[in-house]
């Protein structure tokens, strides 16, 4: 998970350029610069080196573990920045046709943006069958464009409902199993003079999209076999229903409207301003790092499954997640694919990732292990959160289709949610506005909108 910086202008140029030459392969070259200029120290200097960019907090450990275990290739790692900072540099290298690494860490929703520029390599022919069983169908779908695979899944974010046990106990609330129950509980707490039940933030568009998908929305359809055509469906009834639902909660004063990941929002979480936090499996690590769950807050948080629209037909969704992709500038794509498949896949690195709440791993050897499943999570006061909530959600997740201009869509969503919060539009009107905005943008970029 990372805080995304606006990249709409860069994305627009990239998509337009890609469509103008969608049948031409991206020029090779550079291979990611100087393999002798690594952040890590390579000791097996007789082996070929693969350059990579990545920003996981424990990347140094992960790279060292890989290099110690591998006698075929070594990783030369550099952290050129997190999320948007890295993408800016990668986009520059794509445009120049040189300067990209062999392997790059990308958030899954960014893969189509780079794939349409022929900046990533389909790694299916480089050992996919040997590792296919290590990840779920949903995880592979999130790193695929059509039938081609453009990344190796590492971490994900199955969505659930974190809640304050002290608030629920005080107002005699049980974790709501449906969104109707969620609203009823929110009203009960408000009527009794309690805190806000949750939050509608305008800056969490990826979460808003996930919640719409849970209701049955399918925002985008895209097939690389028809690279100039895209389906944009942002104002279907499911999308309108979700925006109206949250807009009504905000209008009634049942949830707040604070942007998330801000000092103000975190202060509210710490001070008990919100009874629930709808978020992903990486949230406990993020909240712990932000100072939540400490001092007087210790032991006051638990997690429950995401409320459903139809409990007889539950749908699980995901927010966030990253992968390792092989770039088209890789000097040796097959060797680079070995690195992508092998990084963050060894037991020691995976264990460090989840025990320190750095990642929620997607590798099934972890998701099915008793150590992970039965772990008692300190942030949740010893609750077996993986067994009860996160693993079942991850297992049931089916994956989504992302668009080649995801950042523009997220920015446009932010504007519309802000308008809902400001009271100038209803959720349904916001969905119609979003459809017109994003469809027009897609056409400007050279797509035929279906």
UniProtKB/TrEMBL annotation:
It comes from the Bacteria. The keyword Glycosyltransferase does not apply. Keywords: Signal, Sugar transport, Transport. Residues 1-20 form the signal peptide. It holds the Pfam family SBP_bac_1. Coiled coil: none annotated. InterPro entries: Bact_solute-bd_prot1, SBP. This is Multiple sugar transport system substrate-binding protein. It comes from Sphaerisporangium rubeum.
């Amino acid at each position: 998970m990372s805080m995304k910086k606006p990249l709409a202008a860069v994305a627009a140029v990239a998509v337009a350029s890609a469509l103008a030459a969608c049948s031409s392969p991206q020029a090779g070259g550079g291979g990611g610069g100087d393999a002798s200029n690594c952040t890590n120290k390579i000791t097996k200097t007789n082996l070929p080196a693969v350059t990579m960019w990545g920003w996981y907090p424990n990347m140094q450990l992960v790279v060292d573990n890989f290099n110690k275990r591998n006698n075929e290739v070594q990783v030369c790692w550099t952290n050129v920045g997190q999320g948007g900072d890295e993408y800016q540099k990668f986009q520059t290298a794509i445009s120049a046709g040189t300067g990209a690494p062999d392997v790059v860490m990308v958030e899954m929703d960014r893969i189509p943006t780079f794939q349409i520029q022929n900046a990533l390599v389909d790694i299916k022919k480089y050992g996919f069958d040997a590792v296919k069983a290590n990840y779920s169908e949903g995880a592979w779908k999130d790193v695929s464009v059509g039938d081609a695979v453009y990344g190796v899944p590492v971490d994900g974010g199955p969505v659930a409902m974190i809640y304050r046990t002290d608030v629920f106990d005080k107002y005699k609330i049980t974790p709501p199993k449906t969104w109707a129950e969620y609203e009823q509980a929110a009203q009960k707490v408000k009527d009794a003079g309690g805190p806000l039940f949750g939050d509608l933030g305008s800056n969490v568009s990826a979460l808003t999209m996930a919640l719409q998908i849970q209701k049955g929305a399918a925002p985008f359809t895209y097939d690389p076999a028809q690279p100039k055509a895209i389906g944009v469906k942002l104002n279907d009834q499911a999308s309108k229903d979700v925006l109206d639902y949250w807009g009504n909660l905000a209008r009634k004063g049942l949830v707040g409207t604070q942007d998330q990941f801000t000092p103000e929002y975190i202060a509210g979480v710490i001070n008990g301003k919100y009874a629930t936090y709808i978020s992903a499996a990486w949230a406990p690590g993020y909240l712990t790092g932000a100072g939540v769950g400490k001092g007087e807050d210790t032991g006051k948080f638990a997690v429950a499954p995401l409320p459903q629209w139809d409990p007889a037909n539950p749908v699980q969704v995901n927010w966030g997640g990253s992968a390792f992709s092989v770039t088209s500038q890789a000097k040796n794509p097959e060797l680079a694919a070995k690195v992508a498949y092998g990084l963050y896949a060894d037991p020691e690195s995976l264990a460090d990732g989840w025990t320190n709440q750095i990642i929620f791993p997607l590798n099934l050897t972890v998701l099915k292990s008793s150590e992970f499943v039965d772990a008692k999570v300190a942030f949740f006061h010893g609750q077996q959160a993986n067994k009860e909530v996160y693993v079942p959600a991850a297992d049931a997740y089916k994956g989504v289709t992302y668009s080649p201009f995801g950042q523009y869509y997220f920015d446009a969503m932010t504007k519309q949610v802000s308008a809902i919060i400001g009271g100038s539009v209803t959720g349904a009107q916001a969905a119609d506005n979003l459809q017109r905005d994003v469809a027009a943008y897609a056409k400007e970029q050279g797509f035929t909108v279906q």
